[in-house]
Design goal:
This protein is mainly β. It has two helices and ten strands, in the order αβββββββββαβ. The termini are far apart.
Length: 121
């Protein structure tokens, strides 16, 4: 009963979480031995990619839709918070680097149109 009385005084808000659009990205992983690494797209419907010896591959980011959730102070309702799509660079089972979709879009591009990810071995 107290919560019912306090709720109008505390207010209720909606929170919009940004999603990620569907995207196909050309990646060039530079390392002394790029074929020792793999890339994992951590998103619903994500994929695992083995990096070839030349370090160049094409990956697909699935769409992660926006979601709006209601929020009372210190309490969320309306489902779980979706995370934005992210790219994990792995060596074996160990995660070496994590890049969110917007960080991948901001990577420098080489002369052939591949986004550069540098791994220092």
């Amino acid at each position: 009963m107290q919560l019912t009385l306090l709720a109008p005084l505390l207010g209720c808000t909606s929170t919009l979480y940004f999603g990620s659009p569907h995207s196909i990205e050309r990646i060039h992983l530079t390392s002394s031995k790029p074929d020792q690494y793999s890339l994992y797209v951590d998103a619903p419907g994500g994929s695992h990619y083995q990096v070839p010896a030349d370090g160049r591959l094409v990956i697909e980011f699935p769409e992660v839709p926006k979601e709006c959730r209601g929020r009372l102070p210190n309490m969320f309702y309306g489902g779980r918070k979706p995370g934005p799509a992210r790219l994990e660079v792995r060596k074996g089972k160990r995660v070496i680097r994590v890049l969110y979709f917007r960080e991948v879009e901001a990577l420098p591009i080489d002369n052939e149109g591949y986004r550069l990810i540098e791994i220092k071995s």
